TrEMBL record:
Transmembrane segments: none annotated. It comes from Stentor coeruleus. Residues 407-441, 447-481, 485-528, 574-616 form the RING-type domain. The keyword Metal-binding applies. This is RING-type domain-containing protein. InterPro entries: Znf_RING, Znf_RING_CS. The keyword Chloroplast does not apply. One of its GO terms (molecular function) is zinc ion binding. Keywords: Metal-binding, Zinc, Zinc-finger.
Length: 673
């Protein structure tokens, strides 16, 4: 059955449609309309009895699993093999049991699943040139195309063979065979296209770096034309750095000259064979081609025309004592500090006769505000500094009274204040939010990201300027971040809230404080997590709200106590186990939970339910409440017996009361409400 899946089983024309579920045989277009519902016919090519199903032929697509697996036996067919196995097989059909699920039966079929549908022992698979799908080459007359692509085969006028018709590079029509052999009848390309090295006709078009044509056997060798010619295009070998005629590919997939083919590759690690990540100092990317222009520093070919950053860093021999950055020039002022050009414009304080840096000026103002004054006599307990002030055993730059210093961004007094790069002091909250100093003056000639002073600046859409290096690295403007709303981080800030943060108009109208500061100012119950005006003391000396105080103890201490200590006069029905008991505790919804259920439940499970009963959650009584975990207003969403919090997006199981980590959640407990 080598030709049965491509040629019609009645004639020698190309088969268009498969005739049954096995798809072993096909039928041409002429015989397609002249068939009955069910026909039993003998194939012309393989002499096997085949059933033709009209219902299957006129079905455009078939996704049944029976079409993809090896064909089995049908219950309406009886197979009776003769004594001589080489002869045909007798097949008797019961018309009452006959249906459309009939497949081809051959003598080679057995209960074992074959490796290939047609030739059982074969396991060889090759990819199709057209659709790139693998197929068995023994079951296909054309070993380069699968059976699905062979439906579009026609007679090629160029080579006279059967193949898929395409347009060649010379704009003439041909097939895939003509393309692989580089043959065109009109252009006569196979006689003219020859290898420049061995002077033989070649099938595949290959070009060297010297632009001479070569066959697949001579592509890795030395080009003879380049050796004999004087006017050749020479290149530098990446491996040895010498000029060469042609650059070839070595075993490690790196490029090298002909003399480097047998020598070890310098781009690879000789011990491990891995590629060395040599990064370009200009762009920071791993470089392959080394370009040197005007200096001895190595960089990639893309950065060849760019200024060398390594040469620029060598000129930066001075260090600014204010911003601790390297620079090529510093200026010494009257406080004996050496400042760079940027700090001389932004971080100095000018008086009538003196020029001080802002570190010395701010420290002197802080000392004057508190209790330190300039003494009249010299003493060993006092140290004199260049700024003209004395502090008891302190240094001018490092000393700061943190308890009375304000943050340079939010202007609030705080104890956890640190010194930033510009020399000013900032609280820990503003440092974590990556805020910028508001004391430093704005300079139009400095970049809005790196704050470097330059004359070559570009104006952004926000009317701020940025240097070309930051624009190439796709940096964002830091000055625009200052003016954004502290809460939504989107709109521009127009008002200052009561908390000191800048807010936009919408956020200011909703609440005059940002969400974080408003959350800190509200008091919450440490026992159940609900909002409260005042926290009272339990008998266990812990705190709780007014509803929790009726329990006399908190939930944590109730698990450790004996049940007799929690006995009450009246009895209540537990909202979890539905048992009447006088040993219970009140929940946030004012329903009760017994001690046995409280001890069985984990503390985190009850906290996930906001210390409420399932009945109030499921009936929608607690549609909105404060979350015990994040203290935000939450809503319960109930779907498929799963409770979902809208605030922290937690999904809770109604059987085990635990968080659902994945979709295949299974409960060991079977508690129902």
């Amino acid at each position: 059955m080598n030709f049965c899946d491509t040629v019609c089983l009645i004639c020698d024309d190309i088969g268009v449609r498969p005739i049954n579920y096995s798809k072993y045989h096909k039928i041409c277009q002429n015989h397609l309309t002249n068939i009955d519902d069910v026909i039993l016919i003998t194939c012309k090519h393989c002499n096997s009895n085949v059933l033709i199903l009209r219902d299957f032929i006129f079905c455009s697509t078939c996704n049944n699993k029976e079409c993809q697996v090896h064909p089995g036996y049908h219950n309406s067919l009886e197979i009776k093999p003769k004594i001589n196995p080489e002869k045909e097989i007798e097949i008797s059909i019961d018309p009452e049991k006959l249906n459309t699920h009939i497949v081809d039966i051959s003598y080679e079929d057995s209960n074992e699943k074959p490796k290939c549908k047609k030739c059982h022992p074969s396991t060889e698979k090759i990819p199709c040139l057209a659709c790139k799908e693998v197929f068995c080459p023994k079951c296909n007359p054309f070993e380069q195309y699968c059976s699905n692509c062979l439906n579009n085969l026609n007679d090629c006028d160029n080579c006279g063979k059967i193949g898929m018709l395409i347009t060649l590079k010379c704009s003439h029509s041909g097939c895939y065979n003509c393309k692989d052999e580089n043959f065109c009848k009109k252009c006569n390309t196979i006689s003219t296209e020859k290898c420049d090295n061995c002077n033989k006709p070649y099938k595949m078009k290959l070009e060297r770096n010297c632009r001479h044509k070569a066959c697949d056997q001579c592509i890795n060798g030395v080009c003879r034309k380049c050796i004999s010619s004087k006017s050749i295009i020479k290149k530098n070998c990446i491996n040895c750095g010498k000029e060469c005629d042609s650059v070839l590919t070595m075993k490690c997939n790196h490029e090298g000259c002909h003399s480097c083919q047998n020598s070890p590759c310098k781009m690879c690690n000789r011990n491990t064979g891995e590629y060395k990540q040599n990064k370009c100092p200009t762009c920071g990317k791993p470089y392959i081609y080394i370009a040197e222009k005007g200096c001895s520093h190595k960089r990639c070919e893309n950065c060849r025309e760019k200024p060398c950053i390594a040469c620029y860093n060598e000129t930066l021999v001075y260090t600014c004592q204010y911003c601790n950055k390297k620079t090529d020039r510093v200026t010494k002022i009257q406080c004996l500090h050496e400042l760079c050009g940027q700090c001389m414009n932004d971080n100095i304080y000018k008086t009538n006769n003196e020029i001080l840096c802002l570190k010395c000026y701010s420290s002197s103002q802080e000392i004057r505000e508190v209790e330190y004054t300039k003494p009249q006599t010299n003493s060993s307990n006092f140290n004199f500094f260049s700024c003209g002030y004395q502090v008891e055993n302190r240094s001018c730059g490092a000393y700061s009274l943190k308890n009375s210093v304000k943050c340079c961004y939010c202007r609030k007094t705080a104890s956890n204040i640190k010194e930033i790069t510009c020399g000013h002091l900032m609280c820990q909250v503003c440092i974590s939010e990556k805020q910028l100093c508001q004391i430093c003056t704005f300079n139009k000639n400095e970049c809005s990201y790196c704050f470097a002073i330059s004359s070559d600046l570009l104006v952004l859409e926000c009317q701020h300027s940025m240097c070309r290096m930051c624009i190439n690295q796709r940096k964002t403007c830091k000055r625009c971040k200052r003016n954004k709303c502290h809460q939504c981080k989107r709109e521009k800030a127009s008002d200052t809230g009561d908390c000191g943060h800048d807010l936009c108009r919408k956020c200011f109208e909703i609440n005059k404080k940002c969400y974080e500061c408003d959350k800190k100012s509200v008091m919450y119950c440490p026992n159940c997590g609900d909002k409260t005006v005042e926290n009272l003391i339990f008998k266990c000396k812990h705190h709780g709200c007014i509803i929790c105080v009726d329990n006399h103890v908190c939930y944590k201490c109730a698990k450790k106590l004996n049940n007799k200590k929690l006995n009450k006069k009246n009895s209540e029905i537990c909202s979890y186990c539905k048992i009447s008991t006088n040993e219970f505790l009140y929940l946030r919804c004012k329903h009760v939970i017994c001690i046995s259920c409280l001890k069985d439940l984990d503390e985190t499970k009850l906290k996930n339910l906001n210390y409420s009963c399932l009945q109030c959650i499921s009936e929608g009584i607690l549609f909105e409440q404060i979350c015990s975990s994040c203290h935000c207003m939450t809503r319960w969403d109930i779907k498929n017996l799963i409770f979902t919090k809208s605030c922290c997006k937690k999904e809770l199981c109604t059987k085990c009361y635990s968080l659902i980590a994945d979709k295949n959640h299974s409960c060991n407990e079977c508690i129902s409400f």
